[in-house]
Structure prediction request, 940 residues.
Amino acid sequence: MPNRPWRAIATALFCAKAAAIVGHATVSAAVVVPNICDGASNDCHTPASNPGCSDLACCETVCVVDPFCCMFSWDETCVSEAKQLCGPCVDVDCIGATPEGEAILEKINPGCDSYFYESSCCVAWHWLGCDDPLCEALVCSEDPSCCQSAWDSDCAERARELCAEACAISVGPMTELPCGTAVCGSLWYAYDLSEPDRDSYVFEVTAENTGMTLAVSGELLVSITLRSASDCDVPLEPVFIEYGLCVTTMTACLDAGQYAVRIENLMERDGIGEVPYRIELSCSEALCTPAGCGNPESGSCYAAHSSSFCDDKSCCDAACEVDQYCCDSDWDTQCAEFAWCVCLGVAAPANDGCADAIPISEGSYTGATCGATTDGGAIEACGEHAEGMIYRDVWFRYTPSSGGVLTLASCQFGFDQVVAIYEGCSCEDATFPIGCIDNPCAAGDALCVPVTARQCYLIRLGGRTPSEAGEFALSLSLAAECDAAPACPNLTHDCLTLGTVGCSDGGCCEQVCAASPFCCTVTWDCSCIDEARVLCALPACAGLSPPEGAIIEREPCGEDLNGGCNAVLPCSGPSGNCCAQHAGPGCVDAVCAAAVCAIDPECCQSWFAKCAQLACLLDGPCGCESQGSGPFVTPIAPGDVVFGSAWGSNGLEHDRDYYLFTVSETSTVRCVVTAEFPGTIGIHEFNCANDPLADEKVGGCVARSVVACLEPGAYFAILRHGPVANPCGSEAGNDYILAFEAWEGCALAPANDTCNAALVVEDGDMPFTSEFATTDGPSLPPSCSTWFNVYVFNDVWFEYVATRDGLLTVDLAECSVEGRVVVYERPSEFADCDDLAQQIVACSGATCEQTTVASVPIACGRRYLLRVGGSNYFSQGTGILHLSSRGPSCLGGDLDGDGIIGPIDLALLLGAWGGSGDADLDGSGTVGPEDLGILLGQWG
Prediction:
């Protein structure tokens, strides 16, 4: 059964669409089964590229369990589910196939590594006697029970001693199966027969790198292995065991030579019988050529993978047009993010159209053009942008309070941006821009335009081609002259606190932004804090202490004992030794081979260079003599927390710490790192010379998460010290805490995982989940310390707009996680989420036994962010957030919002009588006579 990281994605998207239909109510699977089953043509027990199958009842039954099957394709997983849920498949089709010709209990096709005895006397079974009269007489004369009770293992053992001729071992032949042919055979079974039926087929490949596809159909419980015809002892591929699949396929890319396929019966049934099957072999050189866009073997477009291209052709073509790397090298996280943004049909932004332009002022704004349409018309060529069009555009309105020069910059995140500015805010005037810039990411490429006080301007931002879209960070500053490198804004947060662009220490801010313009154009993140600490000689963040039960890395500062691929490798050793590459499977040291193959099973097929390297990294079980000292790498498992140290020296030498882990099933893994120094945490394939599958900046004693969906195999989590000096013995801290966790399947973070994606809520109940959430947002002040720390882990976010002057009460119900609830006041609708450290209005540790966790004074029209998270690295769960407010309504008696208090408002109030909500004008909690008096007093 194939590993498909996109199945969870498909199910999540499917349920999201259903949730959009039924609101916040619980979605029943029966409600969301698509109508694809009615009219589908392919058989339910046969894999197909299109969704659904012809048996309506079976199709609907399967799709309730696995919506993927009715959204994308009816693949082998759907076939397996159909077998389990809908009953057996059709009879084996032998048309065009050669019969195997093997009768029950005969072994005419067992294969080169199979042996059998000439007589049934030599094996145990439950019948009396055996098929050789002379041997039977000899054995029964010594043990009459063999002819009176059963021919058991003692009888068989005595027969092998007395009947040399009957118990001679024969080696079986193999049936030829040329490419492009099929054979109809059978696997027989017999109760208590020690040697199962094995059928072997031999075929020849004449060209190098030929693709083999083997299809086996039948009601089977078998193992299927691919072997060398000249040496059948060890399978070339892992054993595939299929439980009752109607069609089982195996593919492989082979060099020229002779090969054997062995099918072995695994069924245990009473009596004697046989199960028919059909085996068909096809060979194609094209199968093993590099995959192209649309090849189903290329991997999901919506998840990063090490190979190039992806399975959705149109999406793949669009991504590769934007970034050829996706088709030349590997489908990395940037390619996957593009696919999520452009190919999934996400909702349009609020400012998608010119008429919906959002008002902004000087400052920094983040957003995305995912889901946007093209609203504006063509413009003259903008720099090298000769097409004269801005695609998938979003719009802003800007009115300066004074005249000057507007400096406009925007950093790109995965797509080529074009930004234009128009004089006037009438969309009919948005034809001839007064300024335009193509690909405006670097500070030196900012757009400078003279502007007039109180004159309205339209700003348009979009992609260079129709397929381009993604995240952006738009920065505006107003000065007397062009400021290609924007000056440090006069902000309230200090230079060691996460926040919006710049920091309050002007001199330090200028030093940092001269080195990293990002810090004054996009956001003041962890790397800016770390650069401020080094460049401005600011004190280090509060020191870290080892958590209880943590693994201590034990690497002395300045020594590279945990350097992994960074260590001096490879090891030395003679040919065939575990420490050196060789062609054969495994290596001479059985203990070492078992340890290496447990991490990478391919090493028990051929001892590649990576196997020798892994033997060196493991050090202890393999005893390789390297050119350095071990252990080279620290192994970790889900649930482990590591307390380690790293260092940087003179900007040249930087410590890298390697943590080795394995994934046995398709899984989501997460590393949460809190570090005193600047650096990165990355998830890498075992060949750690490759780019990371996912990475994230760390530092500033702020918990940061990196998440990746991984196929089975061995991987490294690599922590790198950043590009600043932090030598041993310096005042700057060297310590970090790394927590590792994993879940089976490719898990999706909640939609409101980040502050910028906060879910808008009102009074009432809001179910939430923090499962698979990452850690987002700043740490808390000491006054908020609970659970012995000041961090909020695996948090989710909500936004609440006050409709009363009064008090907001925050309750938790049915929670499954102990953690923390924090409430911030958001200064404006477009304030950057990182600028929250000074905006806390309430914080509380939350337990599942607790009801009320926060009571917050609120004011009409003000916006509040609610952050719900865990108390430690692994805290995550579900619950219900209940919000209730009390106090005078901001609406007064104008309940319908038409500006006039009249009959409609009266009807709305009377309809809510005895309840609560907006009609509770006096904030008492109940709509009653006092509220009616307020409304009548405002009549007209």
User: Anything to note?
Assistant: The longest helix spans residues 6-22. The longest strand covers residues 272-284. Confidence is low (pLDDT under 50) at residues 1-34, 239-244. The chain has 16 helices and 42 strands.
